[in-house]
Amino acid sequence: MTDDLRIELRNSIDTDTLESLCNTINKVGPYVSRLSVENQLSVSRLRYYTDVKVRRDSYRQFHIPKKSGGKRTITAPYGELKEIMYVLAFILDELYVSTSEAMSFIRGRSIVDNAFCHIGHNYVLNIDLSDFFTSITADMVERGIVKLGFAPLVARNVATLCTYPSFKNHNVVNIVPQGAPTSPVISNICAMTLDNRLSGLARRFHLNYSRYADDITFSSNHNVYQQNGDFMLELQPIISESHFKINPRKTRLFKKGEKQEVTGLTVCEKTNVSRKYIKNLRALIHNIKLKEIPTKHEINVARGKLNYLRMVKGAEDSTYLSNLKRLNIAVKGKHFA
Question: How confident is the model at residue 182 (pLDDT cuts 50, 70, 90)?
């Protein structure tokens, strides 16, 4: 987006009317969603989706397995609300200026960049935030996007549109759903205060700090991570005051000599995938080779794993190239189910 269009966008969200928000959605919509020029969004239609029952009926829920076991609930919008949220995600992404410590859902940053911050240190502390997305409420979203320049009325309606009405103790609580187009950028916006406070804490204790969604990592050559030490006693209130919770089962301190990991990548001397990852990739390729008619899904999973391996180790890496060659041989001349 050009600077002129960004200025125009700022002026439109600074105008405290739903008409202005609708005009912006209608202008941007055809470029980033299936909203059409002919069938433009009206103010009454926008208000329609702020209704609790309408929003609940505009989502579907399903479960996907977690790597650590159990299931993750995905709450995904569909239909017109989903298209409106694609536009709002684009607008928010254009106006949000990320902290240097946030590594997830930002163009030009990746899981590899997150791990790179912590290579070669004596101590690596990993902290997981429980229920990261669903800990973020509509009030937090509203406060966050007001800081981006949104006028109060517009911010309140955008916060409502981007949250899912969940029932807790017979009360409706609007929370950020894991599965909506707007949720990634909103999570970063609402974690900006957390990032700023934790990076300040890290500077005072001479540590490195980064955050990849709900994964928080600190690293250093000196040990300040004792449970009742000054650092940990300051860390916990900062997280709770930012309306997040630590998952104690996933808090791990890795020392030098151990296999230090950051968001699934090893960071002892360089970023790398685990041996288990390579073993699983080779097994997948071997199974494809043995099958007369492998499925497209199997091929796509293998290619996805190879692309991830290339991102981590580089396009010239021998492990990546050898497994790419294996996959090409495995699929050569075969038809796919």
Answer: very high
Q: Alpha-carbon torsion 200, 201, 207, 210, what sign?
A: negative
Rounded-to-integer distance, Cα 210 and Cα 202, Å? 10
| Residues in a beta bridge with 215 | 128, 212
Instruction: List strand residue ranges (DSSP E) for 52-106, in order.
Output: 59-65, 71-77
Maximum alpha-carbon separation in the chain: 63
Length of the chain: 337
Secondary element (H or E) of residue 124 = strand 123-129
SS3 content of the chain, % helix, strand, coil (to 5): 50, 20, 35
CA distance 118 to 266: 10
DSSP secondary structure, 104-115, as one string: SS-TT--HHHHH
DSSP secondary structure letter of residue 134: G
Q: Is the pLDDT of residue 279 over 70?
A: yes
Spatial CA neighbour of 215 closest among 179, 264, 175: 264
CA angle in degrees (0–180, nearest 5) for 95-99-104: 85
Cα–Cα distances in angstroms (integers) from residue 199 to residues 114, 211, 216, in the given order: 14, 10, 11
Q: What is the DSSP letter of 272?
A: B
Closest by alpha carbon to 255, among 270, 267, 271? 267
- What is the pTM assigned to this prediction? 0.86
214 touches 72 (CB < 8 A): no
Whole-number pLDDT of residue 10: 77
Residue 246's identity, in one-letter code, is I
Q: What is the pLDDT of residues 189-243, one digit of tens each?
A: 999 999 999 999 999 999 999 999 999 999 999 999 999 999 999 999 999 999 9
Answer for the pair 267, 120: CB distance below 8 angstroms, yes or no. Answer: yes
Q: Specify the residue for token string 């410590």.
A: 101
